[in-house]
Amino acid sequence: MQNPSNKATLIGLSSILIWASLVAVVKLITEALTPISGIALIYSFSAICILCLSGFPKIKQMPKKYLWGCGALFVSYEILFLCSVALSKSHEQVMIIAMINYLWPPLTIVMSILAKQLNYRYSVILGFFISVFGLLLVVNPDILNLKKMHQVLSQNPVAYAFALIGAVVWPCYNVFTKKYAEGHNAVPLFFLIATLMLWIIHFISHETFIVPDFSLGLAIVLIGGLIGISYNNWNYSLQFGNIKLLILATYFIPIFSSLLSMMILGFQPEQGFWIGTCLVTLGALICWKSTWQVSHIRS
User: Fold this and answer.
1) Cα gap 133→135, rounded to integer Å
2) Is the CB of residue 198 less than 8 Å from the CB of residue 82?
3) Distance CA 104, CA 109 (A)
4) Separation in Å, CA 171 to CA 45, 68, 265
5) Which segments constitute the EamA domain (predicted)?
6) Helix 35-54 × helix 4-32 angle, to 10°
């Protein structure tokens, strides 16, 4: 008989793989449809799925700071990140956007330290700068050529800016959720509001709505359902799985995402991209190690 802890851990790891493939899959669907409507369709089915699995949260019992503050941060992040993917003009750009987004793990640690939720060693500073250096290498392998760096960023400044702001917003959500949630989970509600906001953006931007054919519609339902399941399963895995292993695995999402995106999108990045991706992951791991050890010693 399988150990319940092992089962919960495997479920959590499957959620990480779903999130790692999210960027590439969303990009393919938005290429077949109009950008925002494609995302809104996917998240509509995600919202339905997560509401069916988790039920509608009892919002009257929840702290207002969590409900309004963390809710605004969650919705803002989802819209910023998804719109940055939708607005990317090439498969190369979407992979760069994914790496910008994956600055959130080291940023979460830095913000948790500032919020006095974590103890730390000074090596956390080294880890953070290694992640930033890795990201710069992803954007432009010729890192000392500032003119080329500006050239790359100026090709799609809105999408890159959205991704960067999202990478800052998500750590804020994580930090404030830990502080104000008091054990409550309003993610199904936040997810529903994010979906409604995407449809509002679609309509006010006068974007054309393209009805997907049967095969694409089936893919949208499947991907939307998997995203909803992954969010629901993640909460379960954090409660009953191997938390150390799950947290460690999240720091490898940049590498997982790059490999899956390469296979799904059929795009082969340059060597500098892979070096930068590994540095983003290495920096995040150093940040994680710099806080985990001190917390463990003092507990």
Assistant:
1) 5
2) yes
3) 9
4) 26, 16, 28
5) 159-286
6) 150
